Amino acid sequence: MPIIDYRESIQLTNDPANLGIVGRVNSKTIRLMMFMTPRNGIWAADRALKGEAYPFAHVTLTVNRDQFRTEPGDLFKFNYSKRGVSNMVCRVQGISEEDLADSEKIVVNAIEDVDYISTQLTGIGSGGISGEAVPEDLELDDLVNVTVIEGNFVSIGEDVAVIPIASRELGTEVGYLVYMSIDGGSSYDKIDQITVWGVYGTLVAAYPSSTYQIDDQTGFEIEFDCPETELDKIQTVSREHLLTGKNMALLGNEVISFQTVTPVTTTKLKLEGIYRGRFDTIREDHSIGEKFYFIGTEYWNAVKHSSIIVGSTRKFKLVPYSLDYTGAVADASEISLSISGRAKTPYMPINIMGNGAFFNPLYTGDIVLLWEVRFRGTGAGIGDADTVVDASPVWEGLFKIEVWVASVLVRTVTAIDAQTWIYTSAMNITDNGSLASVVVFKVSNYLEDGGITYESDQNEITVKKE
Description:
This protein has helices at residues 6-9, 16-22, 38-53, 153-156, 239-243, 425-432, and strands at 58-64, 75-80, 85-97, 105-112, 146-150, 162-166, 175-181, 189-194, 199-203, 214-215, 220-224, 248-251, 254-263, 268-275, 291-294, 313-321, 335-338, 350-354, 362-363, 367-372, 398-405, 408-416, 420-423, 438-449, 452-455, 459-465. The chain is mainly β. Strand 13 (254-263) and strand 14 (268-275) form a beta hairpin. Strands 9-11-14-13-12-15 form a six-stranded antiparallel barrel. Strands 19, 21, 22, 24, 25 and 26 form a six-stranded mixed β-sheet that branches. A four-stranded antiparallel β-sheet has the order 1-4-3-2, with no helix packed on it. It has four domains: 6-53, no CATH class; 58-116; 146-341, no CATH class; 350-465, Immunoglobulin-like (Sandwich), CATH 2.60.40.
């Protein structure tokens, strides 16, 4: 007996009107027995959605049997001018005869047909056949707004995985296939199938790094490049949901979440209440046109594979498919990604002080450095602010400090097992001949796992001699 891949067997179909009109998402799970391919499952799920969501018209007709030669399952067009009904396609559900033995009349029970409710009918005399509908255009364009990032600790744990992100182009796309190359792009193999979509846009005006960590004053506007129905995914959330990352997005290389959404035009939204530098990222300066991907908590999937190895470079292609078509791998954009082991890498130390000062620190003799550690998985603004407990005082790995004078690296200190270190005046004179007028310190957190060193980005502070 074959083993069913239940992950690929679970197919989703979305009803944008449900969210836009009702204001919430209602879900229903149906079992599609004997549907053995994702394509057939998607077709059946889409058909079931239409049957559940659309208020179909029911029609009962009494007609002469000589004038109505149909059987259950047949289609016909129904016109009734008194009710303003024109060219409504109906499917016969059942036929019965009148009780009178000598009656030539039959009763036809029909229902508006699910397959043609959103199509434009071709009438008699225009070259079409009575009751025939114009097929829905399900052709595809290549996906343009795509990226692949390496998953961080919060999203995937310590496993190494990638997160493909793609935005719909036409709205006809059902999902996309993830292909990966391990030979520099000479050949590609399918490694996953994804049926969730991000929402792509670009930054309208520059957004500086100098805002507060939670920016309730500035915000920014995004011009979206996607089918307008996709914007229904982006809604205002509560403060609690802001803190837990519900409205999560990628702006450049910075992970953010946002609270308030205000329409500016049909394709432009203003986002406010920005929680910046989420997870292992930091606040950055963003210029006009910076890429923006909304992924929330449900519009992305992590992809794991045995060939996604730390230290390797892999190429990816995201190939869309609809109910009737699948894109060509050769036409898909190529995305290159160097695998660094982001999920294993400690977070960068923050809030560095020199001799007790964050800003413009000065010294006359020794320089005492002090910093704070961001713990992965607890604290650091991750999780529900009402339930997150204080992080353990035991940090990951060790700390490394580089000492720079006049753009020259004069000293490197590793294996520091504390959140403080002193650059003594004796070290200073040894390194520079005398007390340097300006000293730059770069601090990072690192750990070793399986013979590989994973090191955070460096945070730095400049200390001047009085």
